[in-house]
Amino acid sequence: MSNVFIAFQRNEETRDIVDAIVEDNPAAHVDLQPAMVKIDAPGHLVIKRQSIEDRMGRTFDLQELQVHLITLSGHLDENDDEFSLSWAN
Amino acid sequence: MATKAIADYRFPPADSQDKFHGAQLLYVGWDHHTMFCAPFCWPFPPEMRFGDLVEDVFPGAFGYHPEFARIDWATTTWLKSGAPFVPDFDKSLAGNGLRHKDVLRFVTPGLHGLSGSGA
Amino acid sequence: MSMTDHQRLGLKERYALMTRDLAWDTTYQPMDKVFPMVHYEGIKIHDWDQWSDPFRMTMEAYWKYQAEKERKLYAIIDAFAQNNGHLGVTDARYINTLKLFLTGISPLEYMAHRGFTHVGRQLPGAGPRVACLMQALDEIRHAQTQVHSMSNYNKYYNGFHDFAHMIERVWYLSVPRSFFDDAYTAGPFEFMIAIGFSFEYVLTNLLFVPFISGAAYNGDMGAMTFGFSAQSDEARHMTLGLESIKFMLEQDPDNLPIVQRWIDKWTWRGTRVLAIVAMMMDYMLPKKVMSWKEAWEIYFEQNGSALFNDLARYGITPPKCIEWAAVDKEHISHQAWATLYQYGAAAPFHTWSPTPEELDWLSEKYPNTFDKYYRPRYEYWAEQHKAGNRFYNTTLPMLCQVCQIPMLFTEPTDPTQICYRESDYKEDKYHFCSDFCKEIFDNEPEKYVQAWLPVHQIYQGNCFNPDVDPTAPGFEPLPAVLDYYHLAAGRDNLDFEGSEDQKNFAAWRNLAGRD
Amino acid sequence: MSIDLRTVAITPLRNTFDHIASRFGDKPASRYQEGSYRLQAENNFHYRPTWAPHYEIFDKHRSALVMDDWYSFKDPRQFYYGTYTLNRARMQETAEGAFSFVEQRGLADTFDPEAKALALEILLPLRHVAWGSNTNNAFISAYGYGTTFTQPCLYQAMDQLGIAQYLTRLGLLVGGVGSVAVARVAWMDDPKWQGVRRLVEDMFVVEDPFELFVAQNFAFDGLLYPLVYRNFDAAIIAKGGPTISMLLRFQEDWFTETSKWVDAFMTTASTESSQNSKLVAGWVTDWVARSADALEAVADAALDQGAAALAPIRDALSERAAKCGAGQ
């Protein structure tokens, strides 16, 4: 199965985002690089609004991910509650 | 295959011979000597003697290579567009059948580049 | 009641009302006259409504989040300039990567801006049009943030000073420029694959992720910020490129061979341009993050195979050129740097011999190729340089008619043999660096016969300033060409050793009590 | 050893890029200047567009307007992406405040039903008009020449998309999804909108980018915005109070701001030469007349005084044209 991935700039806010992703995606692998954190996962990865809000203690609009995002790979599906990446193979 | 376009799409080639003020382009590369990163390109008059290319032009272009001085031109073989080619040094470029944008390669037996690396 | 309506709408439905529902099929003017460019490439679209929007940002959200990015970005650019951040980079050699960036990449960002504006006007589907126009807006952002970030470097270092002039003239800059001109002059659908797929998915991912991570590692917070900030937009752009491919393939089976040919062509075009990024990573970053080969494996091979496996369900097969590229990944950075090193008198940035430690790093990262094929030339040149005989090649190279790179690439089966390919078309011969550049030419000769090849243009006499008389006795063409490039000879070019950049950087750092 | 790079005073080798220095002198340049001038390629294009083989990639000959220097056009707002986006984010915040205020207090539900119906009838089809302007400004930005001319046209295109989306939001909030659908049918079929729709579609096939600039941004918007966002807005306030007007704030502020930019470009083009002045004046005459005709039926439906309201707006626009050097 192919990996999907997403990468963020490393800063205070993305720490919470990455923690939320790791908890929601047990198969995810986190790779820390200079100024950047890259998360790979086999086939599928989901980012849940609720999980991020639980950590940040405030409301979070998934479109705020745009501010920290560096790159991603996989088909994207986005709704009010979830932002997911997947490959169909 | 034709270029798909919304209307007629034909243009004069940017590098036809008439644009080179009487010269024609010639490309020359030295096989297995990649220290010179790519073959060279020159505009020469078609009537230039082939021997002048080797004797007058090559030293300035290839001379930096320590093996250049050791080339034995008598055993050097040539290729034109990848096919064997035997130049007559005393004839002109045109007399040797060279036309605009022809490409020549020469192979120097026994010389294998810097430390035998092909460079 | 109205409010419940409002609240019931999910993101998708709401976004559809905010975009595609705004458009209509014209009746007072025929649709074919309003959208005249949509048929000639042969792509068949039956229902634009089947387009699925990858990201769903309204203008309100766009302004809000992009403004936040801009605030952060300019705060860092300002701080970097005010604090002389340029003196904090690892080594002044690093700054030369930025010269390549500003002269070779930023003008392409501008072209992407105009290209997506054009395609955003021409596609009849409202979904892709909005996505294209938003990308057009992002792309002018990238051009401008790059110019603004590097503006401060321009004040203190040579080689940045006339980037807009140079991209139109300097020999190796015709490589990235012709890449983009090729995409721009293609039809709107091909453009989407060329830029949406090749440029965004293949090229910028490699440039903006591992390279920019390297810039951060070398202390350049300015470049890191514009790079990562740009790439956050690219994530949207990549999904647009991917969606475009899927959409064309789903609309009609007749689209498959056309799309396949474009994927093959643009994967190769992108791969060739990346030779520049390869040498930036392996040779120009004083502190290394990863080798070009490693970056290629992660961001092209793994990511690309995931994509091609995914597209297999539509009948797409991986481009043939991938196998050739897999061989090339162990060679191209060394070959490209050797080229710029030897033609370093004609390039507006500095080149240098790798240090012994760097040679060892290259041996370690390229165990199959470096010691066998490349170390000898770099050691020989370093020796010669020490002896006062630095290698400057002053004879102009033969260029590939399509990618316009000097014919420096070797046969996949023999790294000591330059690869020659040629085609005859009408009266003339045309030469190529590879099977794939030849195939691209053979498919569309009428396009590539127009190419403005810098070497040929010099020989036609088109690369001298108007007041120059090439027939005057004692005329020296090469200095005249450098004048035409606006290249300040002795300042912008030649080896890093002994350069004004090197001296200034050392002196300024000394003032700061560093080193 | 302590490191303090900030304390180092070093003299720059140069203040700005060569192309900026040759235009403005070697002094520190603004971000607008460095981010705009000479960014568009001008020389040595590699290939002709397959979609327009008779033109270069960027080609001055696409317009009948003749400029010695297309970079004479200068945006008085000096918008580059950063300043543009920050400015619009502030306007967006204001608009967001108004929408939240109306939404949270349920003000739309208590709005006078007759005034509400009229507001929806007139405002919602304008979503499509704004979309038309997005299309046209994208055209000008794509095929115009020189970044200082083309750059603000893309901003204008995106603003108009934003306006279409604000109008959609207004519809959803005040009238619900159904009202948006009804307006769409009216746009396609209702006789009072057909003049405007025909005009917008006619603009879609104009091929000269500067003519289209005059038609869309000066002539048509120059009549539409005062008619709708001043006269009609006032009429709705009179009939039902300020709620709906609050939701139009963005457009009102926006028109005031962008008109200054439009006039600056009209002036630069017209004052370049008497030929240009004549050309632009001709486009003004033609497109103002056609726009006024198209808007008559809408004005009739929108205002008690009907199409008569257009006459003073048209006079004011003629004055604007005269001030720009494009008067008759």
What does this 3D model show about the protein?
The complex is a heterotetramer of chains A (89), B (119), C (515) and D (328). Chain B has 119 residues and is α+β, with helices and mostly antiparallel strands. Chain B has one helix at residues 50-62; strands at 24-30, 40-44, 77-80, 83-85, 102-107. Chain B has a single domain (28-112), classed as Ubiquitin-like (UB roll). Chain B contains one helix and five strands; from the N terminus they run ββαβββ. Chain B has a five-stranded mixed sheet with strand order 2-1-5-3-4, with no helix packed on it. Chain B is globular and about 55 Å long. The model of chain B has no long low-confidence stretch (mean pLDDT 97). Chain C has one domain (67-511): Ribonucleotide Reductase, subunit A. Chain C is mainly alpha-helical. Chain D has one domain: Ribonucleotide Reductase, subunit A (Orthogonal Bundle). The mean pLDDT of chain D is 96. Classes of the chains: A alpha+beta (89), B alpha+beta (119), C mainly alpha (515), D mainly alpha (328).
Structural class of chain A: alpha+beta
In the CATH hierarchy, the architecture of chain D is Orthogonal Bundle
- Portion in strands of chain D: under 5%
| Straight-line distance between termini of chain A | 6 Å
Give the H and E element order of chain A. EHEEEHHEEE
Poorly predicted regions of chain A are none
Q: How much helix, percentage-wise, in residues of chain D?
A: 55-70%
| Total beta strand runs of chain A | 7
**Helical amount among residues of chain A, as a percent range?**
25-40%
Low-confidence stretches of chain D: none
Show the largest interface.
C-D, 102 and 95 residues
Q: TL;DR?
A:
Chain C has 515 residues and is mainly alpha-helical.
What is this structure's SSE topology?
The complex is a heterotetramer of chains A (89), B (119), C (515) and D (328).
Chain A: E1 3-9, H1 12-24, E2 29-33, E3 36-42, E4 44-48, H2 49-56, H3 65-68, E5 69-73, E6 75-78, E7 82-86
Antiparallel strand pairs in A: 1-3, 1-5, 2-3, 4-7, 6-7
Helix pairs in contact in A: 1-2
Chain B: E1 24-30, E2 40-44, H1 50-62, E3 77-80, E4 83-85, E5 102-107
Parallel strand pairs in B: 1-5
Antiparallel strand pairs in B: 1-2, 3-4, 3-5
Chain D: H1 18-24, H2 31-34, H3 81-104, H4 113-123, H5 126-143, H6 147-174, H7 176-189, H8 191-204, H9 209-240, H10 243-246, H11 249-271, H12 274-302, H13 310-323
